[in-house]
Design brief:
Blueprint: H1 4-7, E1 12-23, H2 48-51, H3 62-74, E2 78-79, E3 82-83, E4 85-89, E5 99-103, E6 109-110, E7 113-116, E8 124-135, E9 139-141, E10 151-153, E11 160-166, H4 173-189, E12 202-212, E13 222-227, H5 230-249, E14 258-262, E15 267-270, H6 273-276, E16 283-284, E17 291-292, H7 295-303, H8 309-320, H9 324-330, H10 334-346, H11 350-368, H12 379-390, H13 396-412, H14 420-427, H15 435-448, H16 450-457, H17 464-474, H18 481-492
Parallel strand pairs: 13-14
Antiparallel strand pairs: 1-11, 1-12, 2-6, 3-17, 4-5, 4-16, 6-8, 7-8, 8-11, 9-10, 12-13, 14-15
The structure holds zinc ion (ZN).
Amino acid sequence: MVSPAQTKEIAYEPVIGLEVHAQLQTESKIFCGCRVSYGEEPNSLTCPVCLGLPGALPILNKQAVEYAMRMILAVGGQVNGHSVFARKNYFYPDLPKGYQISQFDKPIGTGGAIQYRVDKGEPQCCRLIRIHLEEDAGKSIHPESGESRTRVDLNRCGTALIEIVSEPDLLSPQEAYAYLVKLKQILQYLEVCTGDMEKGHLRCDANVSVRPVGQKELGTRTELKNMNSFKGVERALTFEIERQTALLRAGGEIEQTSLMWDEKKQVAEPMRSKEESHDYRYFPEPDLLDLTITSEWIESVRAELPELPEEKAERFLSDYRIREYDAGVLTDSRELADFFEQVVALFDDPRTAANWIQTEYLKTLNELKLSVAEFPVRAVQVAGLLKLVSSGKISGKMAKTVFAEMVSRAMSDQQRDFSPEGVVRDLGLEQVSDESALALIVDKIISENESQVQAYRNGKEKLFGFFVGQVMKETKGQANPEVINRLLKERLGN
Ligand SMILES: [Zn+2]
């Protein structure tokens, strides 16, 4: 026992475990044929099975099983050949059956780990306890103003989820954040979940406790719910760790409870005790057979796993010889990585392409708040623009103007020609690289500025810029600077 006076001196460290629910992007729900879609007319995507009508029987969606298998295999977990669905009983208005079909003591996946980095630090690892399949509940839509009734929308009811449960291996809110970013990236690479937290496609609960530094056993934990962004998770954890630490330092005790994060107030408050006193009375789901997965099935799913972010970044380094940092940025999402490869397939200078995509292209995407898929300017046009620069038809500076015009045309009127060649032609921006034409202009400038030529030849080298400027003026900025420099040096005798 330590006395309150002593406890004030103790340094505490947090221990965090996360439970993430990921909605699988299957075409239909997990136990019926209803379509899965977001933002539809309430209760329009329902049937007797997902409404929980008496006598309706569930049939397991094979695609949902395969998506869960993909995730388990991608994180190095074990797909269990035999798993069991179980009823998790609880009463809530958006759960018409009065139970949720989930998995309990025999989940489809066990083990595995997520590798993540905090900022640019060394890779760290968080082990996973399990990944299991379950169905989602519906949604209660609480009145915003003027109305007193809460409405229920059951469109989401029966949508396939996987729950990914981590070991308490995360030692700071920043680690929890980095873990979530990585988890989402993997789900997106596998094309099993959109990762959209705003639409509730990804949801996270956090278990957190603190313990004196050096102590092995865990402190009493609390559960944080209702965070709706990764930054929200980080903020809620920071709040709760400070609360627990202050309480312990003051000689208090942590009560094991669930807390709701209030993003507006930036505080976590206890749920009403009725809402958290659960006795789920799990038992095996009698309407479904046990799930048997053969090793052949596992191997066929494994064989079709896509390349994951780290492998892709490694390959980019060796195939394209780009910088490590660039490879990291370009493999951030699968669609951006694919885009880069499409550009490089058409324009054989990966470093230039990598540079351009990370600066002009991504900057524009961010400004317009568009995804790669939504952006109308495609790889073929970006490659075309880069070719115009590398062949000397336009300068790097002009390329920015041309790109801005391509984007503006593509966004406002797709009927208009927004190809780089078309824009260069229409804007009259073609760079003059024709040596004989430029030589005539250079000769003219030299003959018109005899005194400056004399001064330059007498050692006033700064005047070189003056001659370049004169040629540029004469050509309205469209002369190829390299050619001008060379021609001027030849004629001025340097
Ligand atoms: Zn249905």
